[in-house]
Write a structure and sequence with these properties.
The protein contains six helices and eight strands. With 183 residues, it is an alpha+beta fold. The radius of gyration is 16 Å and the shape is globular.
């Protein structure tokens, strides 16, 4: 599947999340990238398709989800690294500097990851979305120190518009022991 635009709705209800995922797929010609439970008792829905269809689908999700929605987004022309990192299939190259952005919601972390990947010459290594994290999420990236620093700042700024960032870290020269733990 070639991703073009992605959209997301994150809810505080698992049952309503499942119902919302179904309604979003039926509302417009979109494909479901993921629909799953996350911590703490949330449900995350990510869809892809043409921008108009994704917009219609997300609007349906927001209407149905109502006050149970904790985050949402639409990203036209999503960076190619985002979904592989989200699905745990990113292919790491050499690990130079490391950058980490940690957020309070999965939706804000995906926004941060996309902005970070577009801001500099970095590779996303992992995009962990709330599973076993008490509802928080994080993205890990690598590249040259200056690129990682710029990307972390851009990603944190994007995530921070609606949701504060828990932490943003740049590790200029990570130890070999840490690198082995990441791979």
């Amino acid at each position: 599947m070639k991703l073009r635009t992605i959209g997301c709705v994150e809810l505080n209800s698992i049952g309503l999340g499942m119902e919302t995922a179904d309604a979003m797929v039926k509302a417009a010609q979109v494909e479901l990238v993921l629909a799953r439970t996350t911590c703490p008792g949330r449900y995350l829905i990510v869809i892809t398709g043409d921008t108009g269809a994704v917009t219609d689908s997300v609007q349906t999700g927001l209407r149905l989800g109502g006050d149970m929605v904790v985050g949402s987004f639409i990203i036209p022309n999503v960076h190619a690294d985002v979904v592989p990192a989200m699905n745990g299939v990113a292919l790491p190259g050499p690990i130079n500097a490391l950058g980490v952005i940690e957020t309070y919601t999965a939706a804000s972390c995906v926004l941060a990851a996309d902005a970070a990947a577009k801001a500099g010459d970095v590779s996303l290594l992992e995009l962990r979305l709330s599973a076993g994290l008490g509802g928080k999420a994080f993205v890990v990236m690598t590249g040259e120190v200056s690129a990682v620093h710029s990307s972390v700042e851009a990603g944190a700024a994007q995530a921070g518009e609606d949701n504060p960032v828990v932490s943003k870290i740049v590790i200029p020269s990570p130890s070999e022991e840490l690198k082995r733990q990441l791979l």
